[in-house]
Amino acid sequence: MANLRQTPLTCSGHTRPVVFLSFSDITPHGYFLISASKDGKPMLRQGDTGDWIGTFEGHKGAVWGAALNRDATKAATGAADFTAKVWDAVSGEELQNFSHKHIVKSVDFSRDSNYLLTGSQEKVLRIFDLNKPEEEPKTFSGHTASIKTAVFKQDGKQFISASDDKTVRVWDVVSGSEIHKMELPSMPSSLELFHDGSILVVTYGNFTSFWDANKYEMLREFEAPTQINSASLHPEKSMFVSGGEDFKMYKFDYQTGGEIESFKGHFGPVHCVRFSPDGELYASGSEDGTLRLWQTTVGKTYGLWKCINPDENMANSDANAAVNAEA
């Protein structure tokens, strides 16, 4: 197994930069991956292989945010056409359309799939009741610049938002009030809430920081050799991956921040990275218009990857070609 090289699976299909991606939980049909792109055509894929399943057609501008609910039955997207849409992820049918007054940068489902959280460039956050879509959404104001991203906490009673005003804020859903504010030295570039709700991963500048998601105290912070646009923590909290302006994918030790490995595969800055729910792979989206899937353990037989020797690269090449052909 020595000297195996990382051979990412390249998922083509988008014609503009890929700016956000999100995995579903593990379902009876495996797990799924949705990507948001400036081409306005969010795509759904099988998570472990990258195989294209379908494209959600209907937005009239760049799509900045995308989310799947836990069982991958619904998808949500936010776009530059000032709308957030909810889709049937099985049929691809548009179910609901929510108008905003500016570009929608972020969307997230509550864990019970009953509510949709949106963040927009009008500095406002909204929660829509998907069972009563005709009702006015609940609004949350306080940020002084565009919302970058926002996520529900596990119980749905609170949510967390990151903004270009250099803050990460925590909100109470019922009262509508701001509970806590974390000030950063520069604009946050990404926000991830760990799957069990215990850790918040925030990137800004060259730094990836990890916070206790209940006490809002910083646990650790590590600097990378480039501007970091996104980071994701492995489900076992053993490592984290990140990507940014130098086109590389980095893997670091979560305890020490030491670099484990780095790979160059994209031909443009990396905008988004996420670990799969089983931790076997991580996905990245780039300015080059592609998604790539990377093995957490290089050389392991998983999905389209076959366990091979260094001189026997054809299996990975064939797998890569298969994904490209699908898209």
TrEMBL record:
Superkingdom of the organism of origin: Eukaryota
Gene Ontology biological-process entries: spliceosomal snRNP assembly
Repeat (WD) residue spans along the chain: 56-97, 97-138, 140-181, 263-304
Gene Ontology cellular component terms for the protein in this record: SMN complex
Coiled-coil spans in chain: none
Gene Ontology MF, one: RNA binding
KW Repeat (keyword) present: yes
Pfam families per UniProt: WD40
Keywords: mRNA processing, mRNA splicing, Repeat, WD repeat
Secretion signal, residue range per the UniProt entry: none
SUPFAM superfamilies: WD40 repeat-like
Residue spans crossing the bilayer: none
InterPro entries on file: WD40/YVTN_repeat-like_dom_sf, WD40_PAC1, WD40_repeat_dom_sf, WD40_rpt
Family in the record: Belongs to the WD repeat STRAP family.
Name of the featured protein: Serine-threonine kinase receptor-associated protein
